[in-house]
Amino acid sequence: MICPYCKNQAEWVENKEIYGKNYGKSVMCYLCRDCDAYVGCHNNTRKPLGTIANKETRVWRMKAHSVFDPLWKNERRKNNQPEINREALYNRISSAFGYRVHIAESNIEQCKKIIEWVYGEGK
After folding, report:
1. Residue 96 pLDDT > 70, yes or no?
2. Where are the beta strands (DSSP E) in the chain?
3. Of 7, 31, 37, 76, which residue has the fewest beta carbons closer than 10 angstroms?
4. 55-82 pLDDT, tens digit each
5. Burial 82-92, CB ≥16 within 10 A → b, else e
């Protein structure tokens, strides 16, 4: 995998290179040491969970998840709102944006749009 920031080859490593110890069931990831950019992999395969992200992008993805995930998790039931599953919610936002949306593949501007959508139409 090529790092989108420096264009160097990212290494396929165990995530203990990032966290100091292996974290989670799937411990493999791609890491660009020069940019501190990384992405985890599905079930210890070489298939990335999204796109490689630097620290700023990871922060915005976490912010997007923090407002998006409660819409499909148990918080909706607690607030007496209609339930919606994760896939249906991603389909709804993708339809609204006119392209396939997934937070793990989103850049900073897309994350900001996701957050705006959640606070507007998403609720």
Report:
1. yes
2. 11-14, 28-32, 37-40
3. 7
4. 999 999 999 999 999 888 865 555 666 6
5. eeeeeeebbeb
